[in-house]
Amino acid sequence: MAQSKDLIATVEDIYAKAPALPANIREIIVKITPWLALIFGILGIIGGLGAVGLSPLAGFAGVQVGMSVLVSGVLTIIYSILLLMAFPKVQKNQLAGWNLLFWSEVVSIVSSLVLVNIISAIVGALIGFYILFQIKSYYK
User: Fold this and answer.
1) In which region does residue 139 sit, left (phi positive, over 0), alpha (psi from -120 to 50) or beta (all else)?
2) Please, are residues 86 and 37 in contact by the beta-carbon 8 Å criterion?
3) What is the distance between the alpha carbons of residues 13 and 46, in angstroms, rounded to a whole number?
4) Which of 5, 64, 89, 110 is the most buried (most CB within 10 A)?
């Protein structure tokens, strides 16, 4: 648990000097975050199941699954489950929900790296963590 808090604190220190979004923008993001977590959680489960060949749509499309796609599919399912677990907690502005969003972002970045999408991983990390740390103070 201490390592988890250490990683969050380290990333938070990196983003501490970033320019702040206006309060009204942060409030809008906080209001839509639960719904984005729900929508992307559901879509991620569907996509992840397809990537591992467990979706009827995957068979219909004739998807050939390589090892990196398989691993990425499993990681997609994991970060999607984290998003779905975060949904009720971020609706209630609980810090535990924000933490789940943070770890979902970490797993998403690892998934991009598995697929050797370095640019996607970097851009996703920069934007995702920036937004997360902009709204962290709203969660208790």
Assistant:
1) beta
2) yes
3) 35
4) 89
* CA gap 117, 87 in Å, rounded: 27
In the block, residue with structure tokens 């990681």: 75
- For residue 91, CA distances in Å to 43, 47, 103, 129, 140 come to 19, 24, 17, 19, 12
Q: How many C-beta atoms lie closer than 10 Å to residue 134's C-beta?
A: 18
Q: What is the DSSP letter of 19?
A: P
Q: Is 0.85 topped by the overall pTM?
A: yes
State the distance between the two ends of the chain, measured CA to CA, in whole angstroms: 18
